[in-house]
Structures are given as structure tokens and as C-alpha cells.
Amino acid sequence: MKKFILRFIASALIGTLLLLATGCQSSKKEVSSSGTTSTSEARKEGGSLVFGLETETDHLDPYKAATADTRSVLFNIFEGLVKPDKDGNLIPAVAAKLPDVSSDGLTYTFKIRSGIKFHNGNAVTAGDIKYSLETAKADQIAGLSEVKSVDAEDPSTVKITLNIKDNDFLSYLTVAIIPKDYTQQDTHPIGTGPYKFESYTPQQSLILAKNTDYWQKGLPHLDKVTFKFESDTNALLLDLQGGGVQAASVDNATANQLKTGFTIEQANSNAVQQLDLNNAVKPFDNVKVRQAISYAVDPDEIIKTVNYGKGVRVGTPVIPGFKKYYNESLANAYKKDPAKAKQLLSEAGYPNGFSFTITVPSNYQVHVDTAQVIINELKAIGVTATIKQVDWATWLSQTYTNRQYESTVISVDGSNLSPESFLGRYVTTSKSNFLNYKSTDYDTLYQQAVNENDDAKRVQLFKQAQELVSKDAAAVYIQDIASLTALKTGYAGFTPYPLFVIDVSTIYKTK
Predict the structure, then answer these.
(1) Tell me, what's the pLDDT at 87?
(2) Mean per-residue pLDDT for 112-129?
(3) Which end of the chain is more exposed for a tag (fewer CB within 10 A), N or C?
(4) What is the pLDDT of residue 13?
(5) What pTM value is reported for the model?
(6) DSSP one-letter code for 506
(7) Where are the beta strands (DSSP E) in 213-317?
């Protein structure tokens, strides 16, 4: 399934891949723990692919992209000094090798990869790195706030100096490297990735062409990839069945209707589905009300009825695959307890319950279905909820940006391989704090975690931060939904990652 990823797009994130059993009538294959698809079919270079998306890109500028789906597409266009591989390791990309780090941990020195070029044919220089990181910092990209300076030592050497040591700093350097002084990224993006921008038609498609100068030899395999924007799940299914789309991230219901002619690949979505409560509006400005809702909603029931049991229950904004920082003790912090929920409502001044609206983007059927289950569960504590379906653009502008909503169901991811990427949005002043969560205790604890140099203490502080968010019931954390990708017979090479990306560079034709 396709996830919305408010990319806040996370140190060594290792995705736990789930195996999907082969059905007797389907051509489903399992994804191995190495992240490769089992296939004996020969690879054919060239050709094209149409990948269906249930949302449209919100920005082509990598520093302005707000959604996970957008960032998952831009992964193919842009690269940072480093990039994640399929196992969650950070490997050199624009950089020739991992950096030399000073003994005090404040200075990172990179050498630029020899011969690497932007899509416009220009060589990447240290000046481009300096411009990119300074621009990203100005745009408040996660993790870059403590960058003190970026210096171009020579055309192929860049030195980054921090105000304070940050053990996770390398993970922030997946941020896109772009040409110096280039100002047309949102209309004609230019990066160094395996595919380059060809055209964009609003509400229709984004077309990418093979980067023949790509530094990683042997990639990509396809000559052309079209990301087609679908109006909803039904439209996507029809295009998959009709042959107009050859690949897509799909939900369980859609996957079950693709009985023949497709391989269904399963992995973790690496995003947390949650019932977000607007902490700034009544009655959700009352922590006891939020706790009551948390005791009334049963994630296990949602996983079973909506996702066919394919999901991992969570109790925190951090995904289970991020094992180092994930606080697994919180998964059952709110076991279903209607009596406890009613008691909390009474203490909060709502003994007879209340009514509210769950705003859901209509293009995500899985979130609509989840909201319906939640509505039924809340009836047991006298709370009446109704679903308000809106189109994606409206959800993005009104719910996320303007925060004009009571509650919503959505999946939220991290934009990079750092704990800040998942937890930074809960800081009171964060521009991505669309839940309007406000806690001076959390703000203090979070900053302590960010500034802590001792790795073990740092991990513990971030786990304590998750405990505080859970105690305050900032949201109802439901599950990391299993991510299903449909790939038409005749294509192979799907590669899952421990974060939400769509890497089309590894996909190839087999006939």
C-alpha cells in the first residue's frame, strides 16, 4: 500500500521483512531477507514501466516535498552525499567515500565522487554541496540546524562543521544535492540520481528518463518510467487489470484481486498508521480524552479486519524496524479497556461522550476502512464519530498545512535514517507538528536526546521521549502496515528498503 510519508524522511535502520505465503491461484513470490526477489528469469535491458500512484507529487523541489509518496518518487531523481542501501546502511553516493570525521566529532570532510554529473551534464563541485546544504538548512530540513558552516576546500573537497557533536549526523546527509544557484527545481528538477526528469503533467503523470551518465554502473535498467497519478484505489485497480499500469503499491483488497499475471511483493511499509488527534481543539486538548480514545481503539482488530492480519502493532511514532530506537514496551501501553475509557471521559467532563469528525483522504481506502472500524469501536464508550472524506489536495492543505481538523487517519514516516526524523515533529515549534502537540517536558527531553553524545544515553533519552508522547496520547498509534507492491509478470527486480522509497532503478523487464 502506498503511504503518506510526511518525510521527517531516520542511524542504522534495519527493516524487518515479512514473508507473504504463495496463494494457490496467484503468482505471488516471497521477498527474501536479503531484499531480493526470487526469480530465475533472464534480465532484459531497456523498455519502460508505468507505476501507479494514488497521490500526486506535492512538490518536485526536494527541499519542499512534504509527503512520503513524493519523496519516494524523488528518491530516483536526487541523491545526497550518502544514500541508504536496501539493508539500511549508509553508502557513498555523491561522495566518493564515507567522510573523515575529526576526533571531536564536529567536522566531516568529504571527497566528491570522480566524474559524477548532474542531469544537465555539469560536474558536481564542492560549491554545489555548499549551496545545497545551506539551502536545505534554510528550508529547515531535519537534522541540519546545528550545521555551523560548509566550506569548499577545493573543487572536490567539502568540509562541514557542526556546532555540537551529533552521532546521527551522517544520516541527515541523504539530503539532495542540487546545482548551485539553480532555481527551477519545482518545474524541472535536476539531481544526480539514476533517472532524470522528462516531463510533468498535473493530475496525470510524471515521466522520468534513464540517466545514461549515472555513476553506479549497471543501473538503471529501464529506459523510461512513468508515474501515473490515479484518482483512487478503484481507478488504480482498473489500470492494473487493464494493462495501463504495470506496477503499484497496493492495499490488501487490491492485491487479492490480482490473482494472476502479477507478483505481489511484501515488506514493511516503514510508516506508522495513526489516528491523529488535533491536540489544540476541544475535546482533544484534554489529555484524559485522548487517553480514553486510546483505550477504546483496538489496533489488533484493525490489523485483522482491514489488513488481513498483515501489520505490526505499534504504540509509538517510531517504526518497529528502527530497532535501535524503537520502544517496543509501548506497543500495548493502551490495551483495549472500554471501562477505563469511560472513566477517563467522565473525569474529563464528558460522561455522556461527544461527537467528532475523522477527516480522511479519499484516495487511501485503507485509511477510510480503518476509520470505519474506529467509529464502531468508539460506540462502546458513547463517542460518536463520522468520516469526512476529502481529496488529497484538500487534505494536504487544510488538514496538514492549516491544521483545520479534529482528527484524521494517515500513515506517517521518517524522512531519513535518524530518530529525529520520527520524533522531531512533536516539538512544540516544529513546522511539521500538525497534531499541535505541546509539551515543555517533551521539548526539553527531546533536546537533551539530540545533544547527548553518549550513544547508550542518547538511545535511552529518545525512548523516554516516546514514553512521554505515549503517556500524553498525542495520537493513537496503530500499526506499521505491510507494504504490498504489485509487479506485472514480465518485470522483476523489486527491492524493498527499510524506509519508504520506490526504487525503480533496480526493476527490469524479463521478456
Answers:
(1) 80
(2) 98
(3) C
(4) 32
(5) 0.77
(6) G
(7) 224-229, 247-250, 262-268, 271-277, 311-313
Sequence ranges of the domains in the chain: 48-79+186-265+492-509, 82-172, 271-483
Bond into 189 cis (ω within 30): no
pLDDT value at 136 more than 90:
yes
Burial class of residue 314, CB neighbours in 10 A (0-12, 13-18, 19+): buried
Q: How far apart are CA 77 and CA 407, in angstroms?
A: 34
212 close to 220: Cβ distance less than 8 angstroms: no
- The candidate with the shortest Cα–Cα distance to 95, out of 7, 170, 145, is 170
Band (pLDDT 50/70/90 cuts) for residue 2 is very low
Provide the pLDDT for residue 41: 66
- Residues whose CB falls within 8 Å of the CB of residue 244, separated by 6 or more in sequence, listed in order: 50, 228
Which CATH superfamily, name and number, covers 48-79+186-265+492-509?
A: Periplasmic binding protein-like II (3.40.190.10)
DSSP string over 302-352: HHHHHSTT-EEE-SSSS-TT-TTT--GGGTTTT---HHHHHHHHHHTT-TT
Task: Tell me the CATH number for domain 82-172.
Answer: 3.90.76.10
Rounded Cα gap, residues 511 and 502, in angstroms: 22
User: Do the domains 48-79+186-265+492-509 and 271-483 sit in the same CATH topology, yes or no?
Assistant: no
Average pLDDT over residues 81-94: 91
* Closest C-alpha among 54, 67, 3 to residue 396: 67
Are the CB atoms for 285 and 340 separated by under 8 Å?
A: no
Report the Cα 509 to chain-centroid distance in Å.
Answer: 27
Which residues are registered as beta bridge partners of 484? Answer: 250, 266
Q: To the nearest 5 percent, what fractions of the chain are helix, strand and coil?
A: 25, 25, 50
Q: Which helix (H) or strand (E) holds 238?
A: helix 233-242
> Check: CATH 3.10.105.10 for 271-483?
yes
In angstroms, the CA 76 to CA 192 distance is 9
Q: pLDDT tens, 275-329?
A: 999 999 999 999 999 999 999 999 999 999 998 888 999 999 999 888 889 999 9
Mean pLDDT of 190-217: 97
* Contacts of residue 397, Cβ cutoff 8 Å, sequence gap at least 6: none
Task: For residue 297, give every residue at least 6 positions away whose Cβ sits within 8 Å of its Cβ, in sequence order, or none.
Answer: 275, 334, 336, 374, 377, 378, 476, 478
Reported in sequence order, the residue ranges of 344-448 that DSSP labels E, i.e. its strands, are: 355-361, 384-390, 407-413
- Count CA atoms closer than 13 A to 251's CA, side-chain side: 21
What residues pair up with 133 in beta bridges, in sequence order?
none
Burial of residue 209 (CB within 10 Å: 0-12, 13-18, 19+) is middle
